[in-house]
Fold:
Amino acid sequence: MRNLIIISSIILMSNLSFGADSAILSSPANMRDGSSIGFPIIDTLETTTKALVITLSGNIGNSGQDSVAFNINGDCDANLDFPNADLYLYDMSPMIAFNDGAENRAYTDLFTQWPEEEGTFQPRCDFTTTTVTDDFGNYTMVVCSILTTDSLFDIAITYYAPTDGADFLIGQYDYSALAPAKGVSDVFVGIIIDWDIPADLGVNNSSGYDQTKNLIWQRGAETDDTDETAGCPIKEDNRYGGLRQLSGGSFGGWTAENFPMHSGSGFDWDSLYNHMSRPGIEMSPVVTSANHDSELVDLHTGMTFGLADLSGEEVYSFVWAIATTNIGEEDLKDQLDAAYYWADSHGLLPPCDCRPGDANADGTANVADAVRIIKYVFSDAYIGPYHVCSGDANGDCSVNIGDTVHLINFVFKNGTPPPTCDQWLNGGGGFDGCGFLQ
Structure:
């Protein structure tokens, strides 16, 4: 069976449990305005076969608490040095970064940060839970909201948890500015995950990405055959944890070693801002066949959804999904494709907003875009906001020299124009359609 969880307004699909086992603070959490929170701040989200700890301050995982960490039923790990198949996701949080004119500032809720600390989030309300039955099945919707400890920014969170299958989690974050932050125009918003994918080297992982799907993953490492000889058939390098942005064109993302980016609680503000503000994908370490084991490290994954103008009343919404697997990369991608279609069928994704062929995102498809595509093909220049659709002038669901030729013929020889967004997505006008925005 497969479980689906959606987070952004975060939506979880599964059997969602909020019961007597919920952890309660021994003393109320203090809010910025002096009020206090006396209700449970930690609870458990359950899908058909998986579970995650969630907190009212926006964290998921709660530092691997009680191994409720998106691990997989029936998993095994016979490695005597690191028997860690019971933990995949250690910590996860929304993130925000901006420069206030004097310094870089950043916010996460990771590694036991407390609500009183600078650079983290506080809860604004208790969880609100609704059980829904619709034409697509049954799911539970969970809503809450958080704010930064300096009361500058707010994030509304919604979880959807289907109760009739799926093995992924989908979520939505709605970012906005509170009154003191009005006028802050350039704010990077995104999500960060400390995966600890089981590996023969403890939590040391490799990483990879599929830019066409806005997908970044971490992978376990198989360095000996202990598991196989001890009766556990699951190879560590078939274990994956992945994050995919489902709505909007991804700005950028990375994997990097946890240290020295953080020590104790939270992340260094400058390091986080520098990563969030760089477009494109950066992977670390770059694992080579000649030096594979020594280059594996304790990694985290970050994804920047976009650069938000929060100078007014705007709300920036982004939908994402996560999944884990112990049977390989293709299963991870299949799960996250299914998450995309579930989110789309439930109206969570925005209308088609891509301009095929507009590779430089200036609003028109012209010769400048042909030049950008050539640079992309030969020197990995940035195409956006969508890594395929934005550069795919001929509608074949890929970006290559053929798109440059199509644009030149369109501009100078009155050739066929690039497809509309709807044609690129669903077909029509001589185009086959590519299925989903990527």
Q: What stands out?
A: Residues 352-438 form a domain with the Type 1 dockerin domain fold (CATH 1.10.1330.10). Residues 1-35 have pLDDT under 50 and may be disordered. Helices lie at 226-229, 258-261, 269-276, 292-295, 329-345, 367-379, 401-412, 421-426. The chain has eight helices and 21 strands.
